[in-house]
Amino acid sequence: MENKSYEKVEIILNEKISEGIYKMDVKGEFKAKVGQFYMVKCFEDGTMLPRPISICDMEDNKLTFLYAVVGKGTKIMSEKKVGDNIEILGPLGNGFPIDEYKGKKVALVAGGIGIAPMLYLAKKLEADVDLYAGFRDEIYFTEEFKEFTKNTYIATNTGSVGHKGFITEIIKDDYDVIYCCGPNPMMNSVKNLGFDIPVYVSLESRMGCGIGACLACSCKTKNGMKRICKEGPVFEVKEVNF
Question: pTM score > 0.85 for this model?
Answer without folding.
Answer: yes
